[in-house]
Structures are given as C-alpha cells and as structure tokens.
Amino acid sequence: MKKEKFLEAVNSLKLYRRAELMDQKGRKLIKELYADPLPNDHVLKTLLNDNTTFLIGRKGTGKSTIFQRAQYELDQKKNITWAYIDIKSLYESSTSEVIGISHTDVTGTLNSHTIQKLHVFRAFMAELVKEIKKQIEKRIESNIWATMKDRFTGSSSELFEKLDQFIAEINSEQYINVTGGFVKNASMEQTDGKISKEELKVTATASKTPSFTGSYFISELKNQESKHNENFSKIFIRLFKIRELIQQLKEILATLNLDRIHIFIDDFSELPKTEMIEVVDAILTPFNNWSDEFIKLKVAVYPGRLYLGDIDKTKIDEVYLDIHRAYGRGDISTMEAQAVEFTKRLLEKRLNYYTKDNLEEYFSSSKSVEEIWLNLFYSSMGNPRILGYILYYCYETSVIYGNKINVQSIKDASKRYFSEKIGAYFKLNKFLHESFEERSSIYSLKELYEQIVIRSKELRSYQGSKLMKDIAGRPPTSHFHVISEYESVLSSLELNFFITKYYEMKDRDGKEVSIYALNYGLCQQESINFGRPQGKREYRLYYVERIFDYSPIVTSYLSMNQEIICDSCGVKQEASALPSLQKYDMLCPVCKNGKCKVINLSIKYGDLINEVSKESLLPRTELGILKTLHDERSNMFANQIAAELDCSYQLIGKRGRNLSDRELVTRSENETGRRIFTITEEAQEIYFNDEEAEDTFNFES
C-alpha cells in the first residue's frame, strides 16, 4: 500500500479550476490522466469540433480539465491557436480597478450607472485583448511553432503593434468622450403601458481615431416615471469597435498562417445574471457571429445558466456533464451503469498512474468490488471533485492507518462531506451582503428542503401500498419526483448539491416528471436508505410511484413563501398567475406599467435573519474566505484559499485586505516573506460561534 501515492492520486481529483495536472518535474500529465465522461473521448472530440461549444455542468464536473485536455490537442496543431479567459476573475479585476470615475460631465441620455458599466467593460476588454495576445506570443515562442517565426519578418512587438495600439486607445482617458455624445432624436411618450421606439445617435471620439456615427432603435416598455434602460451591449459594441478588434486578430492570425483561434471562456456562470447577459450580447455574440468562422468559442456554464443571446442555437454544440443529461438517454439502469463505469474508469486511471497497484490494494468489500463502485457513484454522483474529497476523507480515516476502504468508510466520508461542504451553505448566507429579501429568499429554500427531507423520512415507515408492504425491511426513500414545471424552483438546491437531478420520465398518470435524488451524505446522516429495491420488474418504476410525488410540497411552499408584487402599483398576484405573467414579460395586468417581481420570503427564519447586524454582512467571497480559514483551522496562503473557493489567488489577496481592514483576518508574512492569512477571534465569534438549534436543519416533523 503506497499511502503517499494514493494521496497524490486523490488530490489530483480535488483540483479546482485551472490547477494543472503536473508531476514533480513540472511535466504536464493531462494526457495520461484524462478520463472522458463518455466512451471514445466523445466529449473531447466534440469540444475540438469547429463549432462554438457550451460545456454545461455543475461545479467539479471537470469542465476546466476537459478544457486543458482540448488545449493540449490544439498545441499539437500548426494551423490553430487558443486563448483561455477566466471571465469571472477578469471581470472582477476590471470592476475593482474602476475607482474614482467622475460622471459630472455626462449629459444627454446616458446615466451614471451606464457610464460606470462602460468604464468597467473598457478595462474588461483591455484585459481580454492582453490575454489573447499573451497566449499567441506564448505559442510563437514554443518549440512546435519555431517554424512559424519564418512566416513573418520583424519582431514580435511589430507583429502585435496593432493590438498594442488597440489596448492603448482603450486605456486612454480620452477614448470615451460621452459629453453630449448621446443625443435624443425623439422625445419619450408619457403613455401608460405603450411600447415606443426611440432613436439614439451615437457619437464618440477616440484618440488618434476618426469619430464615427451610428444609429439604432431601442424598444422598451416604459413605466409611469418614464424610465428606460439603455441598450448597453449595442452602445458598447459601437464605442469599442468590436468589428475592428476581430479584424485585427484575423490579420495577425493570417500572418502566421493560422486558420482559427479557439477562445476558452471559464467561470462564465459565476457572473451576476445582468453582467452575464451583457458579456454575451456585447462580446461573445459579436466574436461568434462576425468572425467569419475563425473565432470558435468554448464556454463553461452551469445548468440553467445558459444564455445565448443572438448566437444561433442550431449552429452550436451543447455538451452536458451531469448524469441525467450525460447518461440518461436510455432507462435508469443504463444511466446508472454508465455513470458507475465513468466513476470506475476515472479512479482506475488516477490510481494506476500514481500507485501502479491493483485497486484491491486499497478497497475491500464483503460482497463484491462492484458494491464499492456503486457507493462511490452514489456519494459523488459522478462528480470528479466530490469523488476526490470522498476519497481524501477515506484516506484520513482508513488508508493512513494501513486499512482498506470499505463501504462504511465511503458512507461516513459522504456524511462528513455533506456536513462540512454542503450543509453550511444556509448558515453562512444569513451574513450575505444582500437585502433582507435576498437573504430571506435563500432561507426560504432551506424551509423547502426541510419539508422534502421530512417527507422522505416519513415514507420510511409507509405501508399504504402493496409495493411498499412487499419490501423487506426499511424501504429506500431517497428519491422523489416533481412535475417538470417545478425544476426552476429546485435549481438552486441542485446547483449547490443538496439534491441531484437523476432522470426524466413519465409518471403513472403519463405526466412528464423530473426525478431527483437527495444528497447521499444527507441520507446517511438521517438514516434514509438510498436507491431503489432490486429483483422485481415493477421496481423499475419505483421512483415514479405516487407516494414519491413531491409536487404538492413545492406547491405548498410557493403558496406560503412566494409573493408576486408589481414594482409600480404594488398589487399582489396569485402564485398560479406566474406562468401567464411570464408569457408577457411579467407585465403587471393591473396597471400595465410596472413589472411583477417574484419574491420568496422565509417565514420560519425571518427573525433569525433580522437579528444579523448590518455591520456583519459581507460579500460572498469574503464569507468564503472566513469559512475556509475556519474549516482548515490553520494559517493559509492566498492560493490555498483560492483552491477551496474556486477563484483566483489575486482575488483572495484583494478581498483579504478588506477583511484585514475590518479586523476579521490577519495578514502576516512567513519566514520566506510569503503572505499568510489567519482568521481572528472576533471573526470566529461573529460568524462561527453560534451553534443554536434554530440555525441548523430541522428534519423532524
């Protein structure tokens, strides 16, 4: 038993984001360790196709690893290059650099908020171009591209002169001269509920760049105050000359005899929804639609967060990594078998490389080794990163002592993972720097989750049907189904791994339903048997038995916790009116001016949220830093914290300074001068010292 090698294999599965798989000599191991989610490297081959591709999966499903494997293949090609953009870190960095911008000279149509966004996107676009330039320069200097240097004369700086000029112009304070630049050509009509068109003439001047003029129409609903939202993406495209940038990139690539550039966009779904839409409309759509096929986008997104804008859905590939879409083409048994096969193949490849041992050296089962694979699948749901954590916990309880991992070890590890990594989600979010309504909305999902788990626990002793009576012992009650229309209600719980969408099928009444599985660790904690009975034909439809229809639970939750209110007249609508409202863009049917807003309020935890002082509220990243330092109970470097939070170490450095200013962390240096972070006693007292029952899950009916 090679304990340290086993630990290396496990840690390689836990890696976040762009953490590369490398050996001790710095050699990349991505080709040796990569295990494709589908046979015959189908996901990889799809990603390498000359189509814009969206790679869709929850955190930890291996999106960044698949990107690295594709980039390795592209490195071997002489007619294609690539660039990698961590869009979340890039956007946050750009936002943080916009300090002290004055809007006092802004007149005309643009408000200060829009001007602020333009400055943010200016910094964002400059960083985007720099990253593309850096990647191309890196490729030119690599050995495989040595022959490329003969294809152009002059220095590398001359080759990129146009891009450098583009960046310089964007960064020039004189680039956006918006004073009087946006002129209203038509006055707004003060009519209630009518749609008007308004023509805006855009005029902007750039340093060393001729001024240009363009016109476009904005159509929108106006409320009683005659407010309107600028079509930001169109303003941005014109001001920053996206077509010109695309043409410059194309000319540089042509100089190097390059046909295409693949731009990998990671962490796309981490952007706030509004910013995500603007990035698609202002940057990704023009890159995709105006590049004459030489720019190919490869975008990593979360389920339910895919926004295409004007990108033609019929001309892109969508690759899903979560189990119900990746393997759910046949029946449930086939889906489970294929997901288990991937889990096995992934772990075998890692252990074979690092340990060179047979798997029996580390795993033991009283029944068969297949029982091990099935439980590893249940505990991870085929998620490589979660699998890494499960095995890391098994290492700490078994392997480190020379003991083999058994089924109980896996169950205990999954219970620990739920407690430490998933269950704390709600408790920390009461300190989130958002409005009461936003935090209450998060806690309302906690109420819904508690009701779901309570029902699953009640069904353990249910004897009201012949099917349940015939099951020996306690029946499994880990899965449930809801009508497909309720998927959006459960999406946040699924995104954060409280539940996992398992399958889609028709129920006993012929209705389309979505089947979900409770978290395996939660089931171990609450003594809920997982899966479905075996041995009888009728068990194939076990998950769609009527007793597992939790749609009434969701309906009750919506009626009790959800409010639909017009932001103009304040009239409340019934929850049942939501589908009709959505068909008309949430336009209020009463005043016909305002938009109806959906607000989920926590009735049960409202007082708990109100008790939190405003001074204790923090942004999500800062809360994550504190939780990581609390969980690890040790000093940590920025890159270690970043690995846990799935973000860049630069972001941790910036946010760490904010926490230090508030005396919630200390920033010191070790003997080598490297910065280390430590959580303070004050932070421990405020955020982690309350273990009262009211702030924990209540799964008792």
Could you explain the architecture of this structure?
InterPro entries: P-loop_NTPase (IPR027417), WH-like_DNA-bd_sf (IPR036388), WH_DNA-bd_sf (IPR036390). A hairpin with a 5-residue loop joins strand 10 and strand 11. The chain is globular. The protein has 701 residues and is of the alpha/beta class. Among the domains are: 38-173 and 239-320, Rossmann fold (3-Layer(aba) Sandwich); 558-609, Herpes Virus-1; 619-695, Orthogonal Bundle (Arc Repressor Mutant, subunit A). The chain starts with a helix and ends in a 14-residue tail after the last helix. 44% of the residues lie in helices and 14% in strands. The longest helix is centred in the first third of the chain and has 30 residues, at 112-141. The protein has 28 helices and 16 strands. Helix 1 packs antiparallel against helix 15 (384-397) and helix 25 (620-632) packs across helix 26 (638-645). The strands form 5 sheets. It has a 5-stranded parallel sheet with strand order 2-6-7-1-8, sandwiched between helices. Strands 3-4-5 form a 3-stranded antiparallel sheet, with helices on one face. A 3-stranded antiparallel sheet has the order 9-11-10.
